Amino acid sequence: MGKPLDTPLIDALNNFISAGRIPMHMPGHKQGKGFDARFKDNLLEFDLTELPGLDNFHRPEGAISESMDITAKVFGARKSFFLVNGSTSGIHAAFLSCFKRGDEVLVNRNCHISVIHALMLFGIKPVFVMPEYDEEYNLALPSRLVSWKRALDEHPDVKGALVTTPDYYGICQPLAELAGLLHANGKILIVDEAHGAHFAFSGKFPETALEQGADICIQSFHKTLNALTQAAVLHVGSERVNVEKLRRAISMITTTSPSYIIMASMEYARKVAVEEGAGRYDELINHLEKMKTRLSGMENLRVVPDVIGKLKRDPTRIVIDTSLTNITGYELYDMLYNEYRIAAEMCDYCHVVFIATIADTPDDLYKVTHALLKIDRSLGKTRKKSFDFPFKTGKCSIPELYDFLDSSVKVGLTDAEGMTSAELVTPYPPGIPVLCPGEVITRDHIKYLDRLIRSGAEINGLSTDEKGQRTIRVVKTYSKEEGGFQ
Ligand SMILES: Cc1ncc(COP(=O)(O)O)c(C=O)c1O
C-alpha cells in the first residue's frame, strides 16, 4: 500500500472545529447554526451546475432571475445581481461598468484593498479623500462632507465616488447629502456596503445606502447574514446605472461555474431575514444592549459606543478598546482565543472586533460578556495609547497594471525613500493607509512607520526579512529607452 496522501487543510479545519470555539466572526451563519436542518442536509446535493430547470447565472431567465428580482424588491433596488466571489467582484464589476480607463473617481482613502485593485485593473485614477480621526477611541472616522465637497471642487471632472460604509468597526458615513451633491453634479455614487447587508431588516439599524441615494451598493451577505462565504449582492439604486453594461461586466469577471450552494444560501439568508428578521433582530439588539450595559462596568477595557460624535455605528458590531489598559488588542484577542475559546473577527493594536448575527445564541453572547469581564478584572491601567496621523493629502498615482505585477521588488523600509510603493501599507489603528500603491515613499512615511513598529503596531503591507528587518514591495517601472526595469 502506498503512503496515504496528507490532508493538511482538512486536518487544520477538523482541529479548528473540534476545539468548539464560540464563532464571533464571519461567516454570519456561524458554522451552520443559522441554517435549518432541511437546508443544511441538502447543501451538498444542491452543489449542481446549469442543468434543466436550474437557470444560468450568465443568462438568468428562470429561478436565478426570479430570486434576484425578489431580492431587489426586498432591498428596494431597481435590480439586484447575485455575486459568487464576494463583494470584491461587485466592486470590480461596478468600476468596470461605470468608468473608463483614465477616468478620475473620488475614493475614501481608507477603502478596502479590492477598491485599490479595481483602480489598478481598470486604469482608473483615484482622488483620495482623507478620513477623520477619533482620538478618544483611536478610530478612523468617515471623511466629512466638506472634504468630499473640496475634492469635488478641485476635481470637477471626476466621474463619481466610491464610499465605504459601514467600515470594519461598524462606523457609518452619512450619505444622503453626499449623494445629493454628487447627483447635482452629474456624478455616480457607488457604496461599498460589504459590512451592512443586514441594515435593511430592522429600523434599529442605520439607514441603508440605497435609502440614502446610492446608485450602486455592494453587500457581502456572508459577513452578516446566514449565507455561505463569498455570497454577495450588488444592488442598483437608480436609472443613472447602465444595467445591461453592468450585467456584462459581472459576467466577464465571474467563473463559468458559479456555485449553486452559494446562490441558494443568499436566497436562504434573504428569506430568513424577511420572514423572521424584525423579531430576531429586536431580540439580538436586546441581548447586545444587555451585554453592553454589563460591559460598561469594566474598569479598564471599554466598549466603543454605538454613536461616535454624530456618527452612527452598527449596534451588532461589538468593538472593545484596550487603549487604557496594559495589553494590546492582539493580546486580548489571544487571551480570548486561547483561554476562553472565543474566536473574535479581528484585532488591531488597541481593539478587538466581534461580529454578532441572528445565528448567535444568547448563551454564546453571555460567555463572551463573562470572559471580557473576567479579563478586565485581571488587567492594569496604563497611559492612553494614542496615534497621530501626519499625512493630510494622500496624493497618489496608481501604477500601471503591468509595472505593478511584473516589477515589484522588496527593499528594506529604511532604504525605500524616493521609491514608489507597490503596497497598501496600513497600520491598525488608525486603519488609514500610510502608503497606497503608486505613492512615493518619503522620509516622513518611513519615520512614522518606524515609530509605529517600535511601539508594537502590526502593519498590513510590510514584511519582515530573514534578518528581522521590515521590508516593503516597491514598483519598478519599465523603460525601453533606459533598457529595462528601473
Ligand atoms: C470594507 C470591505 N469592502 C469589501 C470587502 C470585500 O468583501 P468580500 O470578502 O466579500 O469580497 C471587504 C472584506 O473584508 C471589506 O471589509
From TrEMBL:
GO MF, one annotated term: arginine decarboxylase activity
Keywords for this protein: Decarboxylase, Lyase, Pyridoxal phosphate
Enzyme category, top tier: lyase
Gene3D superfamilies named among the record's database cross-references: Orn/Lys/Arg decarboxylase, C-terminal domain, Type I PLP-dependent aspartate aminotransferase-like (Major domain)
InterPro entries per UniProt: Orn/Lys/Arg_deCO2ase_major_dom, Orn_Lys_Arg_decarboxylase-I, Prn/Lys/Arg_de-COase_C, Prn/Lys/Arg_de-COase_C_sf, PyrdxlP-dep_Trfase, PyrdxlP-dep_Trfase_major
Gene giving rise to this polypeptide: speA1
Annotated protein name in UniProt: Arginine decarboxylase SpeA
EC number, as in UniProt: 4.1.1.19
Similarity field: Belongs to the Orn/Lys/Arg decarboxylase class-I family.
Entry keyword Cytoplasm: no
All copies of domain Orn/Lys/Arg decarboxylases family 1 pyridoxal-P attachment site, residue ranges: 7-303
Domain of life: Bacteria
Pfam family, one: OKR_DC_1
Location of the Orn/Lys/Arg decarboxylase C-terminal domain: 410-469
Cofactor field: pyridoxal 5'-phosphate
Species assigned in the record: Thermoclostridium stercorarium (strain ATCC 35414 / DSM 8532 / NCIMB 11754)
